[in-house]
Amino acid sequence: MRCVLLINPAAGGSLSAQVVREVVGHLRAACDVRTVLAADAGSAAAAAKRAVADGADVLAVVGGDGIAHLAVQACAESSTALALVPAGTGNDLARGLGVPLDPVAAARAAARAMLAGAQQRIDLGKAAGAGWFATVLCAGFDSRVNARANRMRWPRGQRRYDLAVVRELLGLHAMPLRVETEFGVVELDATLVAVGNTACYGGGIPICPDADVQDGLLEVTVVGEVSRRDFIGILPTLRSGRHVDHPAVTTLRARKVRLGGDNGWLAHADGEPQARLPLTVRCAPGALAVVR
C-alpha cells in the first residue's frame, strides 16, 4: 500500500519533531510512506492533487480542518482514501469520523486500519460553483464568527471561537432567508443557517446534532429571528445540541438544499469561505473513502 503523508508543520502552533517522528513511524509500519511538507495552502492543495493523480492508495494529512478540506477536494470521488491525523485548532472532521484527537494516537489507529484494510465510504456535501465539504456549510451569524476566528491569532483552540462569538454578538440581526428542499420551501427572517454533513463546527459545536455521514442526507439547522438576549440564552445549549429544542430553531433533512434570500450572506464550509447566497448544496453519497 502506498501512502502520501502531507504535513502542515505549523499545525497546532507548530508540531514537535518528536510528534512527527512518531506519526511517520506508525504509518511506515503499515505501508510505504512518502512525506511531503506543505509550506502553505497552495502547496498543500497541489501536493494532495498530485498524490491522487499518481494513484496513491492513501493520502494521510497532519493538521487541522484547513488541510483536511484541501485533501477532501483532491480525494473526492477518487480511489484514494483519506486518513486524518488531527493537529489543528478545531479538528471537526476528525470528531465527526471518531478519529482520536491526539495525533500520535490517530496515526497509530490509521496504521492499524490500513493493515486491516479497513476503509469506509462517507458522504460529502457539494456546493454548486464552489467545492466539496465534509463537515458543515454555514451562513449568517456563524459564518461571520468563522471569518473572525480565522483572522484571530489568539487565543488558540476553542476559546478563539468563543471570543469571536462574543464580538460578533454586537452586530447580531436577522435577514430574509429562503430554504428550498425537495420537501418544500421555508421563508423567514433568520440569524443563521447551517447545512451539516457531520454534526460539528467551531471546534466541537454540534450545530447539526443528528447529521450522519452515511445516510445520504444533509441536516439543516436554521435559527430564526431572536433578540440578542434570547440568542445569548441559546448559546449554552449549543454545546449539548439542545439548541434544536428552542422554538426559534428549525431543523430539516434533505438530499438537496437551495439557500437564498435578500441577505448577501457569504457561506463558509469546513471553515473556509465559499460563495455568497443564493447557493445550492447537495449531498453526494459515498463520495469519499476514509481510513478508520
UniProtKB/TrEMBL annotation:
Presence of keyword Lipid metabolism: yes
EC identifiers of the protein: 2.7.1.107
GO molecular function, one term: metal ion binding
Domain DAGKc, chain residue ranges per copy: 1-131
A GO CC term attached to the entry: plasma membrane
A Pfam family this chain is assigned to: YegS_C
Family matches, as SUPFAM superfamilies: NAD kinase/diacylglycerol kinase-like
GO biological process: phospholipid biosynthetic process
Top-level taxon in the UniProt lineage: Bacteria
Family of the protein in this entry: Belongs to the diacylglycerol/lipid kinase family.
PANTHER family attached to this UniProt entry: LIPID KINASE YEGS, SPHINGOSINE KINASE
Protein name: Diacylglycerol kinase (ATP)
Organism of derivation: Saccharopolyspora hordei
